[in-house]
Design goal:
Layout (H helix, E strand, L loop, with lengths): L1 E4 L1 H10 L6 E4 L14 H14 L4 H5 L1 H13 L7 E5 L3 H13 L7 E5 H8 L15
Parallel strand pairs: 1-2, 1-3, 3-4
Length: about 140
């Protein structure tokens, strides 16, 4: 079971992984707005209100926000105990906050949980640090 935070990583994993691997995606921006008490109805209501007042979001997104968020949490809680869980994240506020929320949600589960930090994997894989690449332009 793979957990990601956004449309793009969800799509990338679904294309990359074998068809029998399931991907659960949170479609929220955890780096914006209040995240206090998201595991409670009150915390979710406060977050929804803040998003409505401060972020220009699609009306349908705000309308179904609570239901969609709670459905994703339920999917995570319903992962069978014998299935390993891979939480995909990077070194940014959104995904680090989201990963911590998911870990809190999974605190009573006995699954093997793996944090897959793609920022660290990238740095370990490529010997040239980001920003130090030389772009060669070919002239005709």
């Amino acid at each position: 079971m793979h957990i990601v935070f956004g449309h793009s990583p969800a799509g990338n994993l679904k294309i990359t992984l074998p068809k029998d691997e399931k991907v659960i995606a949170f479609f929220d921006q955890f780096s914006s707005g209040p995240v206090h008490q998201l595991h409670t109805e009150k915390g979710l209501q406060q977050r929804k209100k803040w998003l409505f007042l401060h972020i220009n979001l699609d009306e349908q997104y705000i309308y179904s926000y609570l239901e969609d968020f709670q459905q994703t949490v339920t999917e995570i809680k319903d992962i069978p105990e014998h299935i390993p869980i891979y939480i995909w994240t990077a070194n940014n506020a959104h995904e680090q906050t989201a990963a911590r929320f998911v870990l809190h949600t999974l605190q009573d589960k006995q699954n093997d949980i793996h944090l897959m930090n793609v920022s660290e994997a990238y740095q370990n894989h490529w010997s040239t640090p980001p920003g130090n690449f030389i772009l060669w332009v070919l002239e005709k």
